[in-house]
Amino acid sequence: MGELRKVWAGDTPSGAEGAWSVERSVGGVPGLAVCINFLDAKEVEAMRTIFGSHRTWAQYSYGTARGAKGLLAVVQRIDFGPEGLQAEGLVGGSPVWRLGKARAALLQLLGDRLRRVFGEARLWMETQPDTMQLTKIGANQKIANHLDRRDKWLEGIATLAWSELPCEADLRGESWTLNMEIGKGPTKRVAKVPMQPGSAYVLMGAAQGCTRVCKRKCVGHSTCTCCWTHGVDMVPGASVTRHSMTLRVLNEDSDDSDDDDDAEAAAEAAAADEEGQRADAGETGKASAEGGSKGGGEGDGGDEDDDGIEMAAAETETEAASC
Ligand SMILES: [Zn+2]
């Protein structure tokens, strides 16, 4: 955290005119806003240090790989939530660690800049991000398309991404693809949005599909024809792991007792999608390129016993002090 503070450029762009400019409705997706160059190379390097200080990565399945690409829909994740949230417990099979002081400070730092930069998109006007998710996606992995649980999160999901290692063309790493989809069968639309390392993107409105903004008021992970799903594809020939940090706002009215994980939902959505595609023969070519799934996706990491969780929590707390 000290390293990041030292290099942190604050909330006001000091560089060229148009720095931190935000493009909205990117790829024709209403509610998707993107800011390239959100993090500079020094800030990314500090973020890598923070990622490197974490050891409690849990593996999440986003559906089963298929097709010639051989991509695994599996990622490594750590979730942090506010004090009040069933700390170091299992939320629907997902361990959620307490934020702690250092991470709360990090959340504040990133949250402030995000709110400033995405002000025109009205990000978090009346709310405050209170959870943080760290994700690593290997060069041969991906996140299948899904909706984050619609009634669990309030509007506004912000993600920053970069690569684990610097690359020749850009010290912040390699580009990747945000895959947005809506509809099924013949009416299905896909927007593949190229994303640069160090950029930030925000999902709101139809791009996120939270219950309050969905025309059908959908809950859980159910799909509709008015909201978009999102997924992550690495570019062909990708050689480095993608790092990302996602900030969200918990809906306090949401009932977490029967929570299921977003990853599990991705598997379900992909399976449903696959069925839809099977029914629609015209789509088969595209379907195999999109790597859906069937079954799988327990998405838990919940096979740790209580002792395991506590030990991991203690470890995390120690690390928090050093980052
Ligand atoms: Zn909808």
Topology, please?
Blueprint: H1 2-7, E1 22-24, E2 32-35, H2 41-52, E3 58-61, E4 74-81, E5 89-91, E6 94-98, H3 100-117, E7 131-137, E8 143-146, E9 157-163, E10 176-182, E11 189-195, E12 200-203, H4 205-208, E13 229-234, E14 242-248, H5 262-279, H6 284-290, H7 306-322
Parallel strand pairs: 4-6
Antiparallel strand pairs: 1-2, 2-12, 3-4, 4-7, 5-6, 7-14, 8-13, 9-12, 9-14, 10-11, 10-13
The chain binds zinc ion (ZN).
Strand content: 15-25%
* Largest sheet entry: 10 strands, mixed
CATH architecture field? Sandwich
pLDDT average, as an integer?
A: 79
Order of helices and strands: HEEHEEEEHEEEEEEHEEHHH
Number of helices: 7
CATH level-four homologous superfamily name: Alpha-ketoglutarate-dependent dioxygenase AlkB-like
Q: Total domains, how many?
A: 1
Shape: globular
Helical/strand content category: alpha+beta
Describe the structure.
The protein is 25% helix and 24% strand. With 323 residues, it is an alpha+beta fold. It has a single domain, classed as Jelly Rolls (Sandwich). β1 (22-24) and β2 form a beta hairpin. It is globular. The model is unreliable at 64-68, 87-91 and 279-323 (pLDDT under 50). The site of zinc ion (ZN) has 8 residues, from loops.
